[in-house]
Amino acid sequence: MAETWVPKTKLGKMVYNGEIASLDEVFKLNKVIKEPEIVDVLLPNLESEVVDINLVQKQTDAGERTRFRVVVVVGNRKGYVGLGKGLAPEIPSAIQKATKNAKLSIKPVLRGCGSWTCGCGGEQHSVPFMTQGTCGSVKVKVLPAPRGVGLVTGDKAKVVFRLAGISDVWTKTKGNPRTTINFVGAVYDALMKTMRIVTKKDWGI
What we know:
Strand content: 25-35%
CATH architecture of the largest domain: 2-Layer Sandwich
Structural class: alpha+beta
CATH topology of the largest domain: Ribosomal Protein S5, domain 2
Distance between the termini: 39 Å
Order of helices and strands: HHHEEEHEEEEHEHH
Number of strands: 8
CATH class of the largest domain: Alpha Beta
Helix content: 25-40%
Number of helices: 7
Largest sheet: 4 strands, antiparallel
Strand order of the largest sheet: 1-2-3-4
């Protein structure tokens, strides 16, 4: 644990004092993560990857203002993934902001195998059912795939799936997937919706 971290929220203090030992507990308690250090402590093996860097120009009264917009995906490859955006005059600062925002947006993803043609026995290599996400004008439908199919989707979306711990899916896209921020945002939204459906496993049967 970073010695320089001084928690400011109640959740942060609980994590710092060892009262909460996992992100599963955080979401079971329905707590909101407001400090990225919480994620650093509870997910020490978290990975991050930059999926988009774009130059943004804005005309102001003082003249033209130029900043970099960076999109970062974070995940532990075991069912947690986050997506963040950062704006700054320099790329390193933008990456830092985007990574912080991605940690604050990290959420659990329900994994499984909803493919009727797969004989894996319900391993967590795909999604348990079809789900759909939207961001801007882009809509992405995520479909379960049998083991060995791989990630049948765009390269940027593959980053989101890999860091979430999903290795086999089919996707169908409407809109303009070349708009990276909307494309990965729609994929992230689709994965977040997996937690909104109660499966038989959740019934405790």
